[in-house]
Design brief:
alpha/beta; globular
């Protein structure tokens, strides 16, 4: 997901001061059905007559599991020529005000109800996290920052550069905007340049060393544009989208040399079970686009994964692959708080410093200005708890949260209105794994990321905190915020009761900065891995050991592309759709 971690810590401080609970879930209705008639609730599912262009009636050419950042552009592209069924476990973003409007963007992350746009989970490292559960995936709940991958990344994964560029442009034309640049972001830009992160590359989608302004999926009115809108570019006569459809497992035919995917079993919003089937044509496939958590989880629930682990849960083994769920990486983030002595407006990620130190520096300011946002009590399992970065991860217990809340009750909300400088470790080397918790597709698997287990990540975090501190102390930033370093320390000492100096007094003390990194690590929602190319899928993303099954999403990545992955995952959906059409139809594809 996009860079919202630091701002969410700020939100947490203010929101936990309140004792009452207004309506914190966005109002929803079904008016979207008028504009998007191909989107329906899963309970309406009926196998349509002769929908397929294949030799088998009552079947789909492609079944896509996961209507997220990759799944939506993929479904739209394939539907130009083939019948497509897109299954999404969450609802729609169009009518949910907490998803749609920038001013409320964090509330969905904090909503822990069963119908929330996000699903809370915590890794075994003790870092609280969230995964999307809504049509549009991460693009429906993130901070909206849009920036392309580096040329090195494109070459590393072996993609066609021309088709990549065409696919990026297809996305950008439809849902990407220039940001409404805020004064705070401008001050951060100047501070980055003053701190040596140069040159200034202006507004660009490209990944270039130096400081730049990137794109956003929020328009000038603060309205979010998700990948769900890309579905409108598909063929409505060949596209069926079911929301609240939770896929339980992939169904296989074992008659041939290798198991062959023939369909999926899913539950609707009422708990009723359905089976969707593929046509018999050679090109028909199930394509999993459920993200770095959902895709390896679904493969294992379907019998593809480490044999011993599957047998322990009485799952029939379809294909023994010990690499499913391995190589899970979450880019660690640490933040430095920037207090304001002047009114502060909300701004999400717009400016980024792409350094040669192996870190990215970004910034955010303010929290939602709406009454619902300020007064919403988000509950014990709020995603904001994950941003309580002043308590070491494994000490973020229920009791610690309550003590924190009690101690902060008398501090005015205004004291916490400020900004953050974010430092993210790029291309993290520390890796963990994912394993099933049980056989329920609704429950989260058990995930370990092993933050800073590799010393190179810790080294880069230290460099990032040094740079972030330098940016905070830049004259450009202090002139804008009307604050200085002393004010920072005073506010943090007042508001944080923990054995951590949020801004180290001795930046050259590597040992203390290393401890700071470990104790204050939070997520930036850019986790990836679990279905790596060459180990779980082939170079064209076909699952090894079985037929008619692919995985197309960030679970195949060994590193997060660029300063933010969402642009590349969107592009990947379009790119693979075009590749599949070309492979199947050649010049007849016509897209």
């Amino acid at each position: 997901m996009a860079s919202v971690g630091a701002l969410k810590f700020l939100l947490y401080l203010g929101l936990w001061l309140c004792n009452f609970l207004p309506q914190c879930q966005g109002k929803q209705n079904n008016k979207y059905e008028n504009k998007h008639p191909f989107i329906k609730n899963a309970s309406t599912f009926q196998i349509p007559p002769s929908i397929s262009t294949t030799s088998t009636n009552n079947a789909y050419d492609y079944i896509i599991v996961g209507g997220g950042t990759a799944g939506c552009p993929l479904a739209a592209t394939l539907s130009k020529n083939f019948s497509v069924l897109l299954l999404e476990r969450g609802g729609v973003p169009f009518t949910n005000s907490n998803v749609t409007f920038l001013r409320n963007f964090h509330i969905s992350l904090a909503d822990t109800s069963p119908t929330s746009a996000s699903q809370y989970f915590s890794s075994t490292d003790g870092v609280h996290n969230a995964r999307a559960r809504i049509l549009g995936g991460g693009s429906s709940i993130n901070a909206g920052f849009y920036t392309r991958a580096s040329q090195r990344f494109i070459e590393k994964v072996g993609w066609d550069a021309n088709l990549v560029n065409e696919s990026y442009q297809w996305v950008e034309k439809r849902i990407v905007h220039h940001p409404k640049f805020s004064p705070y972001q401008d001050a951060v830009k100047e501070s980055l340049l003053d701190s040596g992160v140069s040159p200034f590359n202006g507004f660009t989608y490209d990944h270039i060393y130096g400081t730049k302004v990137g794109g956003t999926i929020f328009d000038k009115f603060g309205r979010r544009h998700t990948t769900a809108e890309l579905l409108a570019s598909g063929n409505p006569d060949k596209l069926t989208v079911l929301v609240y459809a939770t896929v339980q497992k992939i169904v296989f035919d074992h008659k041939g040399e290798k198991p062959k995917a023939v369909g999926v079993i899913f539950k609707d919003e009422n708990g009723r079970q359905h089976e969707a089937i593929l046509g018999n044509d050679r090109h028909s496939e199930v394509i999993v686009c459920s993200g770095a958590i959902g895709s390896p989880q679904l493969l294992m629930l379907s019998g593809i994964g480490p044999k011993a682990e599957l047998q322990n849960l009485n799952i029939t083994v379809v294909h023994d692959n010990p690499f499913v769920g391995k190589g899970m990486v979450d880019n660690p983030m640490n933040t430095v708080f920037v207090p304001f002595s002047r009114p502060v407006n909300q701004s999400l990620i717009q400016t980024v410093g792409i350094t040669k130190l192996g870190v990215y520096i970004e910034a955010s300011s303010g929290f939602s200005q709406s009454n619902d946002s300020i007064h919403c009590h988000h509950g014990m399992l709020s995603a904001e708890i994950g941003q309580l970065s002043t308590i070491p991860p494994k000490q973020r217990s229920k009791e610690a949260i309550q003590a924190f809340r009690d101690n902060k009750r008398d501090i005015p909300i205004e004291a916490f209105k400020g900004g953050f400088i974010l430092s993210k470790v790029a291309s993290a080397w520390s890796a963990g794994k994912l394993r099933l918790n049980n056989t329920s597709a609704e429950d989260n698997p058990i995930v370990t990321f092993n933050y800073f287990s590799h010393p190179y990540d810790l080294q880069r975090c230290v460099e990032g905190i040094r740079l972030a501190t330098k940016v905070v102390q830049s004259q450009h930033l202090t002139n804008y915020t009307l604050s200085d370093r002393k004010t920072i320390e005073k506010l943090l000492n007042l508001s944080v009761k923990a054995n951590v100096n949020l801004i180290p007094k001795h930046p050259n003390d590597t040992e203390s900065l290393e401890q700071f990194c470990k104790d204050t690590v939070i997520t930036i929602w850019h986790y990836h891995g679990g279905c790596h190319v060459g180990k779980v899928v082939s170079n064209d993303y076909k699952v090894l050991g079985v037929d008619k099954l692919r995985v197309v999403d960030g679970s195949t990545f060994t590193e997060s592309p660029g300063a933010n992955p969402q642009a590349t995952v969107m592009m990947m959906g379009r790119y693979m759709g075009l590749k599949i059409l070309s492979e199947t139809l050649g010049n007849l594809a016509g897209v």
